[in-house]
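Please annotate the following for my students:
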Amino acid sequence: MNIPLNADQEKLIREKVESGLYGSPDEVISMALRLLDERDRKLEALRRDVQEGLASGVAGPFDEAAVERIIAKGHERLAQRQKPA
């Protein structure tokens, strides 16, 4: 696959290789693609979380008691994770 790059893109790739962070232009492109894929996965997870939140209904009151419930639930989850298998 051949992909044309504009002058700015070529310059950026060249600078990354010259910096010593990457051994070749292929390494720069590979890292860019990995980061793009990671970003896309995180964005998709965020979209799912937003949809889940919207579908969960109307939020209840957020007061001191709610904060205490959230903290207690977090402590319970942490304790469950820390139990030996």
Notes: The chain has one domain: 7-82. The mean pLDDT is 94.
